[in-house]
Write a sequence for this structure.
């Protein structure tokens, strides 16, 4: 696990001799503004600073969005074809150990198809979509290839994204880094104002653990026959970020 810290612009308030002073400091990522206020003002004996902590981990799940599109002269014909194709896709995924709980129907649409004049219905288009979670990343490429081959030419893959589902340890490490970053800045401001840090009076945080979508042009998805090789899948790494705002009293 690699912990990386990034400084961001912060605002700090501190008491300096009962006068109002504004100090602007450049840190390479934008100005840092420290404002000292009169001791009679609310919150004058506090310093508020933000810190950020970032850690990097390896994704443990691949989220796959795919489906089947079928056309028929009637709604029943199109729907039956889509149902048959999606069942084949599901069966192929289960052969790779994908659990029922990780295969979810995510969409169904039925639309009429019109002639060139747009006045008469000539057929119907049916699209059925699945949201799939692949937890065995070593086998994910083969699972995708076999599923798309099972669905045939009507298979569509909308994209994949990676996520870190078991991220509790990473979040804790990011929090440690964010708090340490904030405290380091607060101590510096307290020192500059001739004060020292007291107790923490308030803490708030925001986290960023959203999966990063990876656009994927699935040429194999349109292949008619069985896939002759696994889709190459590279999980890479993913960042978990915590932004912490902390307020200290000043001694």
């Amino acid at each position: 696990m690699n912990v990386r810290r990034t400084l961001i612009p912060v605002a700090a308030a501190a008491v300096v001799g009962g006068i109002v002073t504004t100090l602007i400091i450049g840190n390479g990522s934008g100005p840092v503004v420290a404002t000292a206020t009169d001791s009679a003002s609310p919150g004058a004996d506090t310093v508020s600073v933000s810190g950020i902590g970032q850690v990097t981990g390896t994704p443990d799940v691949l989220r796959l969005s795919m489906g089947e599109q079928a056309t028929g002269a009637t709604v029943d014909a199109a729907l039956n074809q889509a149902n048959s194709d999606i069942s084949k896709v599901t069966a192929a995924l289960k052969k790779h150990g994908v659990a029922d709980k990780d295969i979810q129907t995510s969409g169904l649409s039925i639309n009429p198809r019109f002639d060139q004049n747009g006045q008469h219905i000539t057929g119907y288009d049916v699209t059925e979509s699945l949201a799939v979670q692949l937890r065995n990343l070593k086998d994910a490429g083969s699972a995708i290839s076999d599923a798309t081959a099972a669905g045939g030419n009507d298979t569509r893959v909308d994209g994949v994204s990676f996520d870190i589902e078991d991220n509790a340890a990473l979040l804790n490490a990011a929090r440690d880094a964010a708090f340490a970053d904030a405290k380091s800045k607060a101590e510096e401001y307290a020192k500059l104002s001739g004060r020292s840090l007291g107790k923490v009076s308030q803490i708030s945080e925001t986290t960023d653990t959203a999966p990063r979508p990876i656009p994927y042009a699935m040429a194999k998805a349109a292949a008619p026959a069985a896939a002759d090789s696994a889709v190459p899948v590279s999980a890479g790494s993913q960042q978990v970020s915590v932004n912490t705002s902390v307020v200290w009293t000043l001694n």
The longest helix spans residues 168-192. The helical segments are 75-95, 137-151, 168-192. Residues 1-42, 213-227 have pLDDT under 50 and may be disordered.
